[in-house]
Amino acid sequence: MTIRVLLADDQALLRSAFRVLVDSEPDMEVVGEASDGAEAVRLAKEQQADVVLMDIRMPGTDGLAATRMISADPDLADVRVVILTTFEVDDYVVQSLRAGASGFLGKGSEPEELLTAIRIAAGGQALLSPAATTGLIARFLATDDPADGDRDPARGERLDSLTVREREVLVQVAGGHSNDEIAERLEVSPLTVKTHVNRAMAKLGARDRAQLVVTAYESGLVRPRVE
Q1: Which strand ranges, in their side-by-side order, compose the sheet holding 103-106?
Q2: φ/ψ bin of 189: left (φ > 0), alpha (ψ from -120 to 50), beta (otherwise)
Q3: Which residues pair with 8 in a beta bridge?
Q4: Where, per the database record, does this protein carry 4-aspartylphosphate (predicted)?
């Protein structure tokens, strides 16, 4: 199956470079280019994109607002957003993950990293750059105001619906571990881990593994580590 990729960046030169890279792969193709967030949302629906490479800072509707719009649209439930940013430590990245992005990648990443990120996002099997993303979330949530309006009090309550094993798996997911790594740590099969992850996502209303990580931190199940 060919992965349908949408490029959203206000810099035409960068979009051209990404297009050449993506179209050079036999298992993916660029189905559209957007110079702002509103156009990205429209094209994601029109072109039935699988993955959107989304810049954060764009004129008009920015990448953060566009990510929220995609996440909130039932017709775009299968679309995965990968945030591309020049600043890898950026509060906007955390907000984007909360809004429904599957992960983030620095614009300075190697070409192979970008292609791998697209495949991972399309497969929905793992959080992008797990160690980096988890560390980023931890740093920002460590200084978050508990009264922050972005927090969802119901998330903590929904944790009560998880089984003991599902909680254990969630903690491991928040640590940035893959299904295979979790299976080895908990001495169960990868299929069992996948089942627990899917059930936790359904119970917590999480869009993907990135959302599970955010929920784990915001609910207090996992505490940010102080360096």
Answers
A1: 28-34, 3-8, 51-55, 80-85, 103-106
A2: beta
A3: 34, 54
A4: 55
Q: Quick one: how far is CA 107 from the chain centroid?
A: 16
Q: What whole-number distance in Å separates Cα of residue 164 and Cα of residue 14?
A: 46
Tell me the two tokens of residue 94.
Answer: 């955390």
The SS3 call for residue 79 is coil
pTM score, whole prediction: 0.72
- Where on the phi/psi map is residue 129: left (φ > 0), alpha (ψ -120 to 50), or beta? left
At 24-69, the pLDDT tens digits run 999 999 999 999 999 999 999 999 999 999 998 899 999 999 999 9
Assigned token pair, 110: 């190697």
For residues 33 and 19, the answer to whether their CB atoms sit within 8 Å is yes
101-104 long-range contacts (CB < 8 A, ≥24 apart) are 101/54, 101/67, 101/71, 101/210, 102/127, 102/128, 102/207, 102/208, 102/209, 102/210, 103/127, 103/128, 103/129, 103/133, 103/210, 104/128, 104/129, 104/133, 104/136
User: Under a CB-based contact definition with an 8 Å cutoff, are residues 97 and 137 in contact?
Assistant: yes
Q: How far is residue 31's CA from residue 172's CA, in Å, rounded to a whole number?
A: 35
Strand, coil or helix: 165: helix
Q: Are 206 and 200 within 8 A, CB to CB?
A: yes
How crowded is residue 213: how many other Cβ atoms within 10 Å of its Cβ? 25
